[in-house]
Every structure is written in structure tokens, then in C-alpha cells.
Amino acid sequence: MLKQTLKLAAALMGSTLVTGAAFAQDTAAAVAAVPNPGNNAWMMTATILVMLMILPGLALFYGGLVRTKNMLSVMTQVGAVACLAMLIWVMWGYGLAFGPDAPSGVMGQFISGGAWFLSGVTLESTAATFSDEVISEFVFISFQMTFAAITAALVLGGIVERVKFSTVMVFTAIWLTITYFPIAHMVWAEGGLLFDMGALDFAGGTVVHINAGVSALVAALIFGKRIGYPTERMPPHSLTMTMIGTGLLWVGWFGFNAGSALEADGFAGLAMINTFVATAAGGLFWMLAEAVSGRKGSALGFCSGVIAGLVAVTPAAGNSGPFGAILLGAFSAIVCYFIVTEMKPKLGFDDSLDAFGIHGVGGIVGAIGTGIVYQPFIGGPGDGSTGMGAQVWIQIVAVLVAISWAAIGTAIAAYLAKAVTGGRVTAEAEREGLDLAEHGERAYNY
Amino acid sequence: MLKQTLKLAAALMGSTLVTGAAFAQDTAAAVAAVPNPGNNAWMMTATILVMLMILPGLALFYGGLVRTKNMLSVMTQVGAVACLAMLIWVMWGYGLAFGPDAPSGVMGQFISGGAWFLSGVTLESTAATFSDEVISEFVFISFQMTFAAITAALVLGGIVERVKFSTVMVFTAIWLTITYFPIAHMVWAEGGLLFDMGALDFAGGTVVHINAGVSALVAALIFGKRIGYPTERMPPHSLTMTMIGTGLLWVGWFGFNAGSALEADGFAGLAMINTFVATAAGGLFWMLAEAVSGRKGSALGFCSGVIAGLVAVTPAAGNSGPFGAILLGAFSAIVCYFIVTEMKPKLGFDDSLDAFGIHGVGGIVGAIGTGIVYQPFIGGPGDGSTGMGAQVWIQIVAVLVAISWAAIGTAIAAYLAKAVTGGRVTAEAEREGLDLAEHGERAYNY
Amino acid sequence: MLKQTLKLAAALMGSTLVTGAAFAQDTAAAVAAVPNPGNNAWMMTATILVMLMILPGLALFYGGLVRTKNMLSVMTQVGAVACLAMLIWVMWGYGLAFGPDAPSGVMGQFISGGAWFLSGVTLESTAATFSDEVISEFVFISFQMTFAAITAALVLGGIVERVKFSTVMVFTAIWLTITYFPIAHMVWAEGGLLFDMGALDFAGGTVVHINAGVSALVAALIFGKRIGYPTERMPPHSLTMTMIGTGLLWVGWFGFNAGSALEADGFAGLAMINTFVATAAGGLFWMLAEAVSGRKGSALGFCSGVIAGLVAVTPAAGNSGPFGAILLGAFSAIVCYFIVTEMKPKLGFDDSLDAFGIHGVGGIVGAIGTGIVYQPFIGGPGDGSTGMGAQVWIQIVAVLVAISWAAIGTAIAAYLAKAVTGGRVTAEAEREGLDLAEHGERAYNY
Amino acid sequence: MQKGDASVKLIIAIIKPFKLDDVREALEGVGITGMTVSEVKGYGRQKGHTEVYRGAEYQVTMVPKLKLEIVVPADLASRVVETISQIANTGSIGDGKIFTLGVEDALRIRTGETAETAL
Amino acid sequence: MQKGDASVKLIIAIIKPFKLDDVREALEGVGITGMTVSEVKGYGRQKGHTEVYRGAEYQVTMVPKLKLEIVVPADLASRVVETISQIANTGSIGDGKIFTLGVEDALRIRTGETAETAL
Amino acid sequence: MQKGDASVKLIIAIIKPFKLDDVREALEGVGITGMTVSEVKGYGRQKGHTEVYRGAEYQVTMVPKLKLEIVVPADLASRVVETISQIANTGSIGDGKIFTLGVEDALRIRTGETAETAL
Ligand SMILES: Nc1ncnc2c1ncn2[C@@H]1O[C@H](COP(=O)(O)OP(=O)(O)O)[C@@H](O)[C@H]1O
Ligand SMILES: Nc1ncnc2c1ncn2[C@@H]1O[C@H](COP(=O)(O)OP(=O)(O)O)[C@@H](O)[C@H]1O
Ligand SMILES: Nc1ncnc2c1ncn2[C@@H]1O[C@H](COP(=O)(O)OP(=O)(O)O)[C@@H](O)[C@H]1O
């Protein structure tokens, strides 16, 4: 029943336990199953690592890139959006994405149901992994909670330094509900549209990065450019902070990627080593791309390449050998480099922190590339039963579905949030900076 | 023999192994017991996470809130106090709190004994958990060591920017000995006064937060206000640092709370999810309280709410369902908000970094609230055998005992330290800043 | 077959599995052996912790110590060097250090072979621990990868603020190949020169710290002093960053030391508590040494002492009792204090960030001291079969071999790198700062 | 050069920070190729803002400004003042001031040139 | 306006940083509603401090000061100088200096007003 | 004191930052024991640098300089100017400028001393 290909199928298994024809015998087995402390320990560690990616990781990475006057605004938005996502997750998010009672018919390909307000989840509840093991359901819920939280925060990269805090909050609530939860269900839950299609997404290349990147781009277009962009000087106020954030993102990403194995097994080990080498390649090849195009290899280039590598290896983490991962990381860095430094200025949109240019583009490179590096001839763990062409085609379809869904969902969420709360701050507030205008504080009082 | 209610009863069990009537048969079992690597792994991870809370977590959280000229002083005090606590812990602290040979009679309700200088502890020694499992005793000792270290460091929040480094060190040594170790014993060790009374404190609401908060207040009163307080401008010199600290504290707090399950089991999972949602609620409700009282939702408000939520959920982490935890986090944030922004200015004491206002007050809210959210009718894990009223009463008594003990112990420690080392720096040194005056350095040389 | 003394003998065991006479029966057992998830979880956690030491840990520790104008240069060099080391590691580093096919004869005492490009490593491959357990080989490779990466980055401490980025990269590639991989093999792999001699090095005192420290000194001598050293003012631009780095290094070091047990067992617990108390002693005794020599106890002193303690306890982590570790940490801090503040100024070399003064010197103190604290009479875990004098002698020989090898290897690597890439930046670039000159960016745009 | 009737003038202009680039470019048009700029805090009619940190309210009365110091030949002074006052003008309170002072001597360190030739 | 007998004066006062608020308030009492403040380093009789970083000792001879620049009508100048010198006085070395210079022209950018009315 | 022929002069020197210590020491040799230093940005012949952040190129035209303000008795002024111009000279573009202005009054806050005695 379970496919032999490795996918983040916990939801599948978790739900198998309580739904469908397999109900009787499986439940009996499941109730008896007790989490191995080693797997539970690993998954808690992984969950905490993803939390580290959000606060302080992403808050610093993004915060360092904006101007001094908007530092607190960015950090607070990242933090508050994550908090909101956590609360929504335990109320209706987990149910929509991974709940035990998926609606029957076509609807069930897009959302699930049940477990509203975590009803039915107890200390003894477990979620299945990819083998015969289980982990505590509270741990699985927490792990997935952090994914929803960071994805919502990533979207902010397109709209920082100009949108009201209240708008951001309303946007997030709607966006998670109509964009994130359905996409997570489609990709990671059995019965989900893309899951059933056989799309590979080990740790969220599509659900997290393409989704967040495209949403950031659409939101950037809807909310418009920052005053003064692109003529005014807007250098990052502290690349030191961005570098700290980069380091913490990398560190936390092991929770993201190796945690997506749901067990402390060999797949986790593979995901871990891939998350080292793809990232290393990403960091160095971005700098190399700069050098080749006649620029200086830069610190921000290094950071950007690290993220580009991490993003690209995300769907491939347990779906590739180390050298496939290196190729993916290097290639992603080069492609993102050209999109961000060559194409973006020409197109003229203000995806302020390159959430699209790196997460969106890197995510697409990774998603499609996973179809290639998965193949055994290049050292991947696939068994070759689905040919490279077929797999790549599936990946492309999944990417297109995710892009469309994210774009439409974001447009709806952004226009609604704008209608309710006003959207942008006043021009005067934008000049003064959101820290003072929106929060009444300054980041630094040296 | 072991109560069915969940308490941090490691000491109980650990000591059961080598004392009392149960000695013979238990020891036999214990010697044979080998830690499950999963539980050992989780508890080491948890220990490291608490370390992360101290350095760099708390050092940054506190450091960011003071003026530039005292940044290093705060960070060094936090670090050095933690180091001192670690050394004292292995010399006599572990013995006083959790040693195997508690004095007989009333004394045994307040302190334990034995295991001085860790005598008798070997590579094979184990400490019991709440089930039949054991963990390595060195791991248990390390885990508890970090609790002592961070509690001592938290107290500094009341007295920064004015007290001599030497005074701080002497104060800490005395305070740990007469305040922290006895309270830890009373609450967490079998035979301890409050433990036997049935007080619930999953991860240290009373031992760590009420204790540190009240001690900070008393120390603030004894050492007096900073020169210029409250008329002079004293804005936080870097809310960026405070925000980083907040993130690291949250991340590390999972070690604190989920680690207090002593195993990587379902209770740990429950403590984890509660530590997510109570905190999320805390962060958002503090900002909401600001908005409702006509202010701007602020970054520091967000950080404060996060801490208020974390503090309140500490005693309740494994003693509440997720929605009880959300209530607790939100309520704690609101109460702390009013104490810190409305009441403190009126009372006029200089609890400089609101160690009392947030850790003390949030700890009290959490300790008493745990008596409520523990009940099954609100989704708590309690079995209802102790009624809500009775449990709340026990919690209140425990809070009052902790407050009194902390206040008296702190007064003694503070006056002694002052007598030996002088207490405050000179007015000139305070003006110049403790970084230059006490350490001969400046935090920033841009 | 396996010595009863505890050494980081994974390579021994790993290779035993696929080489030599024991092949047939061992392989059968090995193929069957499946990693306990608890051990795999712990080793992944440990690996991630060492990553945290590099980025952002060491990048901040070193970065805070240089002048503003070189901040990004330092952080980027640390990051890029680590990335390069990761890629080289999976290409030929792992093979040279721990590959399954060591050359026969004398050569095999210095390097290993095989497993080039990780050939032969699969999801099911395992590496043996010190007991009958195994961990996933990908995890072991990742863990050791981080050691190579951080050691290469540590060397930069001797040559920051003046050497070209390209020179640093070429130097690193050569240095790892001719210095690090052979020394790792000599100390940690069965058949390795120093391993067979019985030298104790639990977590890398010799391989990492003596090696990096001596290499930094030699490189500092070859590349020469910074312009203006020592007459010009060069205070650390942000001790705040250095303090954050210190905290992260300490936190990550638990992965380093307790991870070197390769299991989540009692040895890991011992290594953990030693890593607490030796470090605590180091931090406090450096400040004490300052006070005794008539200076102010300083924040940087505290940080330096913490590192000195960590370095010294590294070879002793699982080879000492807690009070032996305290002695070692305190002693190392005092010795390093005098070397760095008294001797260095007299000798006049520009080991800019005291990589030699702390890692080299502390590593030597630790390596030799391990021969003492290992003994049972002082609470160490040794069985006394090798007398103290004999063990200390072995340690001294190992230190001398490591120093010579590192010095020669570094000289070759440095002169080669200089020949190929030019070595130092121009005087003008050095004045302007490497951030602008080499990377075209500034760390802060407040 | 007669004292009190300096052939070289020091023009001190306090302006809003975001006007710097425009002013600099406009001055280039008038032939001014040198100036010295400082970040300063200005106190005047323009009100500052309020900051609140955990209930502690601080009125910040000073606003960030840039101070331009431009030494020019006397005959250029009025054109420079005019140019700055036009370009830096936004019509809102806090646009700033321009002060002119007499300079008795000017010298270029590199060459030792003095007076107008030093500029 | 006659050159050399300027009807407007520039008062430059170097003071200890923590005196700023007091001085500003006292000046308001004298009718001064504008000034420009810079953070500067002062070198003088007041000794600095020593910093030590891992044995490297640095004598820091400069101490942080604030520089106030206040342009006032000539007839107010002496009262302003007096007020500052009273309020900023702590009696200890390093209290600072006050210098008065003549200003030839003053102009408010927003309105184009000049001389005293520009202040 | 006669206006326009001030017995006290304000010397404003713009120099390269790394020359500060040398200049300060040399001035001590001439008997100057006080000065006030500000960090400023200089715009002039000396070109700045280019920064690039993810493809966004910024030309930075301003270079960091130090501004020294030294008030001296009139008879010392020329020696001070000479000293600075010798010591701060590196022969390369951007060495800076020295301007001399007349000061009408000087006062030491601590003692109330005026004119030369205030310095
Ligand atoms: N008397 C003064 N002396 C020196 N600087 C002044 C004086 N008055 C104003 N300034 C400077 O000019 C700036 C603008 O003045 P302000 O009164 O706010 O508005 P406006 O320029 O419209 O008159 C102030 O921020 C301050 O820096
Ligand atoms: N000759 C001078 N020119 C310019 N500024 C000076 C001069 N002498 C002193 N100062 C400034 O005045 C400040 C105070 O001077 P100092 O000699 O320390 O004490 P005092 O004010 O008591 O005479 C110095 O820090 C410096 O900023
Ligand atoms: N007209 C001017 N008014 C005020 N400051 C000036 C002027 N011209 C130059 N400066 C200052 O002098 C510095 C050096 O001038 P620059 O033209 O670069 O080289 P040089 O000193 O060799 O002539 C500038 O950076 C600026 O701070």
C-alpha cells in the first residue's frame, strides 16, 4: 500500500491508522506501537532546530538586510507571524493539512479534516514514520508546526519595510489557510494531489520554498515598491546580522532536512551529509559566479549561495547521493545569482530580500533537479522504476501546480488584508522607518 | 510508592536507589539498568539547550536592555555567575539538593546531603526517570547544573549597571547555597517539603522563576536604584541583541521544559507543544495588551510576552493540554504587562530588567494556573483525584513558601556580600559605565 | 583486539569491518548491525553542534576581535574555508584519514586510502563505536567532516586582516591534504602512528587544537605582521560579537567532546560534565590571573579563559574525572594567560587572534595533562595499567610529532599558496580594510 | 587678504538627510567640488518623536540632520547658498538653515596652496 | 549688516554629554529654540582611560563630549554664553569651552528668511 | 579685543583618520593641549569606492575624514597650521584642508576664564 519511494508520508501513515479499509488491523498495531526514544529524541531535536531557523535565524538574516530604521519591524513581523502560525496550526491548520478525516472525492486531494483543536490527540497518540516505527503525535504536530511558521515568515521577504504590521498579520492568517495548508496536504498527505502523482519533495522544496518564493513575489507586486526603490541607496544595515542568520539557518536546516526522515536512521544521515555538501557548493559557487562575471566574491554572495544551496537540496535531501547534491547546490547558486543580480534589476519589481529570487528560483531548480539526482545512475537512492524523464515531468507538473496555487492564494489573501487593514504605511512613516512609526522604538541606542 | 502525578522526581528515584528500606532490591535493579541511548541523547540535548539559554541567550537578552557602557559588564556577570554556579554545583550543590543522604527529620524537608564533590558517581551511575527507565547520572547532574546556573544569572536582572563584579560573585555563592539548593530540594526531591505536599512544578516555575524574580526584587531594593533612575533616559542600547536573546531563550527553553520529562516520551512531546503555543500566545497577547491600552505594539513587548509565556508554561509544561497552555501564556502576558508598565513606575523600585515583573509575576501566574490547567475538564493530564480547589491551594502555599524563602535568603546573601566587597561601584564608575570601570574594556570600537 | 583504553577508534572499527583477516565473520555481523536510533540521533545532534561552532560561532568569535573594516572578510573566510573543507572531505579527505584501504607498511601509519568520493558508502553502511554498537556511516562521515572544517577555520586566527581571500582558499586546500588528514589518521585511526603508540586524544586536542594553533603561528610568521602592529590601536571592534561567539563555541563544544564518545552513553555524560566544569574553571581562572597580576578581570579575559578551558579539556573529556577536568581547565587558563599577555608582546609575532596562544598552548597543556588526569588516583577513568610517567611520555611524543608535522605542512602550504595567489593584499587594501577591498561591502551601514 | 572681508567663506548648511545627494549634485553644477559632511542632531521647531520601552516613555526632541561645511570663494557664496536653499527646500518644518562665516585662511595640505586655490 | 560686526553670532559650546538636557532646558528659558548638536571627542586636560585587550594596552586620550552649535542674535549672545557656562559647570576638569564667532549671513531654508528672523 | 582682528583663532583641519595620533603628538610639541575631534565624511577630489550588494551597485563618493577644531591664540595660529600641514601630508589626494577663522570670544566653563587663558 505504501509506496517504496521515500516521501514525507507521515500523514499518509498517520491517517492510514485511523481511516480506510485498513482500519481494524492497523489500529490494533498502532495503539501498541510505542515511539523509540531515539526517534522521538531526534524529532524533538529537529523541531527545535527549525524553531532556531525562525527566531533568531530568519529574523537576523532578513533583519540584517534592511535599513536600520526597519530592523525591529522585520524581526517583530517574523516573530509575530510565526506565533500566529503556531496558534492557527493547533486550531485548524493541522486538521486541514494532516487531519484524519479527509473529505471524500476531489476535495480530499486538496485538504484534509478532523483533529480540529487537536481533538483526539493524546500523550499516547503516535504518527507513523516511513518504516514500522512511530513517533509521538505531539512531536509530529510540533515538527510540522514549525514548517508552517517558517514558510509564513519567509513570505515577508518580498514586502518588508513598507507594509503595516496589522496587514501582515491578517494576510498571514488568510494565506496559511488557503495557500499553505492545502499545498502541504497536496504534497505530503496520502490522497493529496501531488503526493498521489508521485512528486518527490523530501523536506519542503515545493511546500515551503516555491510556495513562499512565489507568494513573496506576488505580494511584492500587489503591495508595490518601497519609496525610493531602486534609485535610493538601500544597503543592508548589518551584514554581520545577516551572516549570523545564515549560520543559524544552515544549522537549523539539518532539523528541516534530516528531520524529514522522521527517524534517526540512514536516510537522516544521508539527508545530513547532503545538507552539508550541497550548501558548501552553493556558498562557493555563488562567489565563483560573482568572480566570473567580473565582480568581487562577496560576503552577501556567500550567504546567498548558502541559502540557494540549502533551498535546492531540500526536496532532494534524502533523494540524492552526496555528489548529486553538490551538483544541485552549485547549479542552484549559479541560477539564483543570475536571476537576482542580472534579471531582477531589469524587471524592476521590488522583491526586497529576494525571497522569490532565492527561495522561489532555488526551489524550482531543486524540485526539478530532484527528478534527476534521484536516479541511481547518478548515485541517487531511487530504484529506477520511474525513469528520469517521467520523474522530471512529474516534478515539473508539481512545480506548476504549486506556483499557480500560491499565486492565486496570495493574491486573494493580499487584497483581503489590504481591504481590512489598509496595506501600506503612510509615506511619512515609511521615510521615518517602521520601527518608530509602527512600534515606537529604535533598534539601536548606542 | 511513587506518586502517579507527574513531578520532576528524579531525585526521588535516584535517591531511592541508594537509601532507605528499598535499598537492597532496588539497587540490584538499578545497577543492572542501562540508559536507553535515546533518553540519554535527549537529556544531553536538553542540557545543552539550557546552556544555550545562558550563554549567549540570557547574556544577550539582558545585555541588549542596558546602556552601551554596561554591555560587557552584564554579559560577563551572566557568564561568570553561571561558571561559579557550575563549580559550586559539583562541590556541594548537587549534594544539598539531590544528594543520596538526606538528613533525617525536619531538616530533610529542606536539604539533602552526600555526594559531596560527586563522590560515588561513576560512569555507570544512573538516575531514575518517571517510568522504569534510567539516564546516566552524569547527564542528570549536568542537566540540573544548568538550572542552578541560569537561575543565579536571572537574579542579576534586578541589579545590573551598578553592582561590583566581586559583590555579584560573593552574592551568588551565598545565594545558591542558602536559597537555590534548599528550594530545589523542597520542590523536586522526595522528602522535600513542597514535593511531599503535592505541589506541581514540571520544569521550574517555582524553583527557577519565582525564586529568581523575588530574589531580583529584594536585591534591587537592597542595592538601590541606578543613578538617574527613573528621570534619565535609559533606553535599551540594542533591541536587536534582546531579540536574538529572546529567540535563543525560546529555543533553549525546549530543553528546559521538554527535558524535564527526563525521557524522550509523550510527556516530552506534550511539554514541547505547550512550549510552542503558550509562548506564541504570550508574545501576541502582550502586543495586544499594548494596543488595547492605546500604545503601539512593540518589539520589546513581543519579546517580553514571549518570556512571560515561557515562564508561565514552565510549571505547566507536562501538566496541561495545549489549550490550557495557550490560556496560561496569554494570561501571564497580560498580567505581566500591567505589572511592568503600570504598577512598577508607581512603586518606583528599580528592578532594572524586570526580572521580578516577568519571571516573578509570570512564575506566580504559572504556578497557580497549573493547578487549574492540570485538571482533565480543561484538557489537562491530571486524573482529577485532587480537585481543582485543593490543587490550587497547594500551589498557593508552595508559592508563598518560595517567596518567603527567596526573600529572606536574598537579604542575607546581599547584606553579607555588601559587607565583604562593598556592594555598589562608585558614582563616577557608574556614570562612566561598568565596562570601563570594572573591566577596562568597551563593548564596541566601531 | 580493541584496546580497552578509550580512544576515538571509530576508524579502527569501521575499517576493521571491511579489511584484514577479520573480514569474513566481522562483515557478517556488521551488515546485520543496525544503528540504535538513540546513538544515531545523538551523533547527528553532535555533528550539528560542531557546525554551530563554525558558523556562526567561530565566525563571530574571530570577527568580533578584528577591526570593523575586516569583519566581513573574517566571517567570509571562516565560512568559505569550512565549505571548501567539506567538499574536499567527501572527495579525498575521508579516504586519506579514515578510508578502508590503508597503504601497507610505514605509509599506513600516516595516511589511509579508499572510499574516494565516498565510493562504497551506502544508506546501510555503519561505523563502529567503542562498544558493540554502530552508527550510520554517513553520520560518522559528517561528524568527522565538521572537525576538518573547524580546524581549517581555526588556523585563520593567525593571519586575519591581511591575506587575500584566494590565498586563504588555496592554502586551506593544500593544508588539509598534507597536514590535517595525516594527523587525523595518525591519532585516530588504527594503524596510525600515534594511535598505535597509545596516545590519548578523546576529542581532538592534538588533531584540532595543537595542529591549528601551531599552523596559525607558522602561517603568521610567513605572512608577516599586519601594518601598524603592534604600535597602532587595534581594539576588538565588537566584544559583544566575541561574547556571542564564545557562548556558541561552548554550546557547540558539547557536540565536539560528548559526541566523540560516538554513543549516548555514560562516557558521553562524563565528557559533558567535564566540558562544563573545566570551562567554568577556565573562564574564572583567567579573570583571576588578570586580577592577581594587577589588571581588571575583563570580558575578553573571561572569553579567552573559556576557550582555554575548552581546549584543554578536549583530549581529556572522556579521559578524566570532573575534578581532574577542573584542574586542567584552570591550569590551561593561567598558562595561556601568561603566554598571550606576557610572552607574546615580547616575542613580537602577530598571531593576531591568539590561535597559537590559546589553541596551541591550551592544546599542549591538555594533551600532556590528560596523561595525568587519566590516572585513577586522581579520579580518572584509566585502569592504571599504563603508569602516569609512561602515559605522560607518550603524550609528549605525540605533541612533538604533531607540532613538527603541522609546522612543516603549514610552511609548504603557505609558500605554495603565496606563490600561486600572491599572499597579502596591497598595503592600500589593508589600510582600507579587506571588506571593501576584497569583497566590495561594508559590514555595517547604520 | 583683508581681515573681516574674507575672500573665502565657510557655508554651514543644516539639511534633512535624504536631501544630501540632490544637494551635492546641484552644487557640482555650480562648480563646487568639495565639502565636509557631519551627522548631527537638530533641535528646533520640528518636533521629534516618542519612544516607549516597557512603559518608560522618552520624548526624543532631537531629529537627525546633516551638517554640510563648504568653503567657497566669496564670489560664489551667494550662489551656493541659493542653490542649497532651493534644493533642500521641501516646504515643511525642519528644512534647516544656512549660515555664512568668514574664513581668514585656507590651505590644501597636500600642496600647500592657500586661499581660493586651496579649495 | 556690516561685516566684522555681525548681528548674528555662532556660539560653539563643548560640554559633558550628560549635561545636554539641562542646558537645553535652560536655554529655552532664555528664548533659544534651536540648536545643532554633534557627538565629538575631546582632548584636553581631562585625562581619558586605559583599555586592555589580552595584554594590549591602549591609552584613550579622547573623551566623549557634545558640541552645541547655536546661532543667536548678537544681543542674546552673552546671555546664552552665561547660561551655558552656569548650567554645564560641574567644577571638575573637562567641563568644556564656549567659543563665539561672527556669522555674516543666516537663512531659513523653508521660508528664505534671513538674519535674526532666520533663527 | 578688536572685532575682526581676533586674538583667538579657530583652526579647522580636515585630515585622514590614521594621521590623528601623529598630528596630536606634533601639536603637543607646539604647546597645543586641547582640541575637539569629529568623525566626518569628506567629498572632494579623492574618489570613494563602489559597494555591491546582490547586484545593487552603490557609488560611495564620501570618504571618512576627521575634523579637528583647535582654538589657539592668534600668534600661535600659523605654527599650528604649519605643523598640521606638515604632519598630515602624505602627498596623495585627499590629505585634507586647513581653514582658519576668527573667534570673538572664548570661555572655559569650569573657571570662567576667557580669551587666551581659556584655552
Ligand atoms: N539657532 C539655531 N542654531 C543652530 N542650529 C539651528 C538653530 N535653529 C535651528 N537649527 C537647526 O536647524 C534645524 C531645523 O530647524 P527647525 O526650527 O526645526 O525648522 P526650520 O528649519 O523650518 O526653521 C534644526 O533641527 C537645527 O539643527
Ligand atoms: N584649544 C582647544 N580647542 C578646541 N577645543 C578644546 C580646546 N581645549 C579644550 N577643548 C575642548 O574642551 C574640552 C574640555 O577641555 P579640558 O582641557 O579637558 O578641560 P577644561 O574644560 O576644564 O579646560 C576638551 O575635551 C576639548 O573637547
Ligand atoms: N570646499 C571644501 N569645503 C569644505 N571641505 C572641503 C572642501 N574641499 C575639500 N574638503 C574636504 O577636504 C577633503 C580632501 O579634499 P580632496 O579634494 O579630496 O583632496 P585634497 O585635500 O588633496 O585637495 C575632502 O574629503 C573634504 O572633507
From TrEMBL, chains A, B, C:
Keywords: Ammonia transport, Membrane, Signal, Transmembrane, Transmembrane helix, Transport. This is Ammonium transporter. Its main location: membrane. It comes from the Bacteria. NCBIfam families: amt. It is found in: Cell membrane. The chain crosses the membrane at residues 40-62, 74-94, 138-160, 167-188, 208-227, 239-256, 268-287, 299-317, 323-340, 352-373, 393-417. Residues 41-444 form the Ammonium transporter AmtB-like domain. Residues 1-24 form the signal peptide. Pfam families: Ammonium_transp (PF00909). It is a multi-pass membrane protein. Coiled coil: none annotated. Belongs to the ammonia transporter channel (TC 1.A.11.2) family. It comes from Pacificimonas pallii.
